[in-house]
Amino acid sequence: MVLRKEFFDLPEGIIYLDGNSLGPLPKTAKDRVADMMQDEWGAQLIKGWNSAGWMAQPSRVGNAVGRLIGAPPGTTVMGDTLSIKVYQALAAALKMRPDRKVILSDSGNFPTDLYMAQGLIQMLGNGYDLRVVAPEAVADAIDDSVAAVMLTQVDYRTGRMHDMKTLTELAHSAGAVMIWDLAHSAGAVPVDVAGCGCEFAVGCTYKYLNGGPGAPAFIYVRQDLADHVEPALAGWLGHDAPFAFDLDYRPAPGIERMRVGTPPVIQLTALEAALEVWETVDMSDIRAASVALQDTFIREVEARVPDLTLASPRNSAERGSQVSFRFAHGYAAMQALIARGVIGDFRAPDIMRFGFTPLYLDERDVLAAVDHIETVMGDRLWDDPAFMTRQRVT
Amino acid sequence: MVLRKEFFDLPEGIIYLDGNSLGPLPKTAKDRVADMMQDEWGAQLIKGWNSAGWMAQPSRVGNAVGRLIGAPPGTTVMGDTLSIKVYQALAAALKMRPDRKVILSDSGNFPTDLYMAQGLIQMLGNGYDLRVVAPEAVADAIDDSVAAVMLTQVDYRTGRMHDMKTLTELAHSAGAVMIWDLAHSAGAVPVDVAGCGCEFAVGCTYKYLNGGPGAPAFIYVRQDLADHVEPALAGWLGHDAPFAFDLDYRPAPGIERMRVGTPPVIQLTALEAALEVWETVDMSDIRAASVALQDTFIREVEARVPDLTLASPRNSAERGSQVSFRFAHGYAAMQALIARGVIGDFRAPDIMRFGFTPLYLDERDVLAAVDHIETVMGDRLWDDPAFMTRQRVT
């Protein structure tokens, strides 16, 4: 049993199917942040960096996240945003393969990963190239021109899931460095970064880890590499001796070198509190419950609402923790659903996304959501000009 | 009159002279964050990005910071850490001067600025060079090999202040781009970024702006350049149409392109609340009050504690909002002061730093602090082996 509704502060009457975008508020996060503001920042002031453990927080929380993705202690650290962590991993990977010029990714990657690669390449000049192929074409596109393969495991639109172990092995057999973005994986599906052998993994913590809007990102570096990667973002808190204030950068041993600037203590405090729920549940149980909810949802929607076309893989083994349907009036339909308290979201041009988080959703919620979907699809509000005008305005 | 003690939640019996490192807790920040957690994240969930204004927060708060540094609306945006903002400015500056290879800085710059430059150079290869000279040698070192001059206005150890206008003019007359780090300036001294003509300014907000530990940084880009700078950190929230999810990066118009990833909403909420105090005070009054407090402090310390040697400029026009003294046993002396409730800090090898923030300090506080310093210096605890052992342990 993995249901932990009492851990969250969910509004009455809401069925929240958007935890894949922003997880809900954990009650402990609210309390812990209030305490941190008053008892740490307020009372301890500058001393809080040591006395309240702020300075060690990025590594301490990193270890807590690491446990959820198969990362050994001391291989994961928190900070910055996922975009920045993608950049760090990518810049370090290119340094590891100086004779190669290609970054390989796929069109199902979240755009910011591609953008960060484009920005890096633009700055480096010198013949670097970002090669973007269809998700199903990645395996065949890995060759010995590729410096780094950079993929998001779970597609943000469809939930389609890459096989981390197989693709990592393919990358390695071609001599490429493997970078996994776990934005839609951490807290959603069992992940084993150490087992798959990838060099880098990155991810955010405001989705299935419920860290709050703008919660910091994480980066994992494979243990044997952590003392050797060259930090492109050479910030003082990644220095071997930050408080020596040397004029020259000398990277800290291990994962600490991936820290950059001053950590966001308030956000980290919210995240650290949110992560406590994982001490009481097992990721394989979470996965089983998530698959059961998703399969129920797919079965009921397809039986009762034939106008929606499944956009996610039907085989649950190839799907993360979300289910997407295509519908031409998907934007309007999602607005109507949200107005009824069923919160999913929409991705252009026609994707209605529904995330499943068994920590706070059970089968009754899923069935109730399908009732609302059936009603909304019967109402056909997109045929009503007044409704559509309102949608465009808001 | 600029004293706003009631705005802050300062512990009883503390004289806080370390606002140059971490500003104290504003009461409004505590309340606003609690409300944001419950009424926005908790109640509005994913909708908060629009309904609670989170998406516009980096620009809205950027404008509030901009007002304090002479930046017109729409030229300053919040996000990331100061280290990251330094990197963004520096990478953009190098792109603007592709024929030049030198970054000029000084040894009084905060190390992370130098480290970020070193990391960037290391990645770029290609003959780039960071030239670090003594602060007083900067003017003479600006020549037409310099692509970018990167300086922190106020020295973090001594409070020595560069003349922004003069040095910016020198940089420009040599054809170099000027980047100012305002970490110890924003909220401390009157700054006029637009008036001085610099291309970039960056800074943090947890010091004199009281945004809390890990509060986000800001970046200013001169208005005529904002549509032209090339973002090296090409994140999706700096994209022209983030929610179109295009595969190709296309920078947003203006300052928005300096945004990178998802903004840290909780930290920004604390900061936004903290900034309200500036609506009720004038920066020139703050400056006058700060100088008066500092001059009193210097006069009293020198009269009563001759063992301390002034490390800061004696001329207040050349000094930021802190006063530093050198003392061989400075670390132990500062620990003894902190134990008495007078909180300053120490920077190796021998600098005792005292920050002056007239928002919550008045002349009585300063005189009381000097009483404690006189007592501590008379006690000479550093001659007591037991005390010194305790210091090493904690």
From TrEMBL, chains A, B:
<dbReference type="InterPro" id="IPR015424">
    <property type="entry name" value="PyrdxlP-dep_Trfase"/>
</dbReference>
<feature type="binding site">
    <location>
        <position position="262"/>
    </location>
    <ligand>
        <name>pyridoxal 5'-phosphate</name>
    </ligand>
</feature>
<dbReference type="InterPro" id="IPR015422">
    <property type="entry name" value="PyrdxlP-dep_Trfase_small"/>
</dbReference>
<dbReference type="Pfam" id="PF22580">
    <property type="entry name" value="KYNU_C"/>
</dbReference>
<dbReference type="GO" id="GO:0030170">
    <property type="term" value="F:pyridoxal phosphate binding"/>
</dbReference>
<comment type="similarity">
    <text>Belongs to the DegT/DnrJ/EryC1 family.</text>
</comment>
<dbReference type="GO" id="GO:0009435">
    <property type="term" value="P:NAD+ biosynthetic process"/>
</dbReference>
<dbReference type="GO" id="GO:0043420">
    <property type="term" value="P:anthranilate metabolic process"/>
</dbReference>
<feature type="binding site">
    <location>
        <position position="184"/>
    </location>
    <ligand>
        <name>pyridoxal 5'-phosphate</name>
    </ligand>
</feature>
<feature type="binding site">
    <location>
        <position position="236"/>
    </location>
    <ligand>
        <name>pyridoxal 5'-phosphate</name>
    </ligand>
</feature>
<feature type="binding site">
    <location>
        <begin position="110"/>
        <end position="113"/>
    </location>
    <ligand>
        <name>pyridoxal 5'-phosphate</name>
    </ligand>
</feature>
<keyword id="KW-0378">Hydrolase</keyword>
<feature type="modified residue" description="N6-(pyridoxal phosphate)lysine">
    <location>
        <position position="207"/>
    </location>
</feature>
<dbReference type="GO" id="GO:0030429">
    <property type="term" value="F:kynureninase activity"/>
</dbReference>
<feature type="binding site">
    <location>
        <position position="181"/>
    </location>
    <ligand>
        <name>pyridoxal 5'-phosphate</name>
    </ligand>
</feature>
<feature type="binding site">
    <location>
        <position position="152"/>
    </location>
    <ligand>
        <name>pyridoxal 5'-phosphate</name>
    </ligand>
</feature>
<dbReference type="GO" id="GO:0005737">
    <property type="term" value="C:cytoplasm"/>
</dbReference>
<dbReference type="GO" id="GO:0097053">
    <property type="term" value="P:L-kynurenine catabolic process"/>
</dbReference>
<dbReference type="InterPro" id="IPR010111">
    <property type="entry name" value="Kynureninase"/>
</dbReference>
<feature type="binding site">
    <location>
        <position position="82"/>
    </location>
    <ligand>
        <name>pyridoxal 5'-phosphate</name>
    </ligand>
</feature>
<comment type="pathway">
    <text>Cofactor biosynthesis; NAD(+) biosynthesis; quinolinate from L-kynurenine: step 2/3.</text>
</comment>
<dbReference type="InterPro" id="IPR015421">
    <property type="entry name" value="PyrdxlP-dep_Trfase_major"/>
</dbReference>
<comment type="function">
    <text>Catalyzes the cleavage of L-kynurenine (L-Kyn) and L-3-hydroxykynurenine (L-3OHKyn) into anthranilic acid (AA) and 3-hydroxyanthranilic acid (3-OHAA), respectively.</text>
</comment>
<protein>
    <recommendedName>
        <fullName>Kynureninase</fullName>
        <ecNumber>3.7.1.3</ecNumber>
    </recommendedName>
</protein>
<keyword id="KW-0662">Pyridine nucleotide biosynthesis</keyword>
<dbReference type="GO" id="GO:0019441">
    <property type="term" value="P:L-tryptophan catabolic process to kynurenine"/>
</dbReference>
<feature type="binding site">
    <location>
        <position position="206"/>
    </location>
    <ligand>
        <name>pyridoxal 5'-phosphate</name>
    </ligand>
</feature>
<dbReference type="InterPro" id="IPR000653">
    <property type="entry name" value="DegT/StrS_aminotransferase"/>
</dbReference>
<comment type="similarity">
    <text>Belongs to the kynureninase family.</text>
</comment>
<feature type="binding site">
    <location>
        <position position="83"/>
    </location>
    <ligand>
        <name>pyridoxal 5'-phosphate</name>
    </ligand>
</feature>
<keyword id="KW-0663">Pyridoxal phosphate</keyword>
<comment type="subunit">
    <text>Homodimer.</text>
</comment>
<dbReference type="GO" id="GO:0019805">
    <property type="term" value="P:quinolinate biosynthetic process"/>
</dbReference>
<comment type="pathway">
    <text>Amino-acid degradation; L-kynurenine degradation; L-alanine and anthranilate from L-kynurenine: step 1/1.</text>
</comment>
<dbReference type="Pfam" id="PF01041">
    <property type="entry name" value="DegT_DnrJ_EryC1"/>
</dbReference>
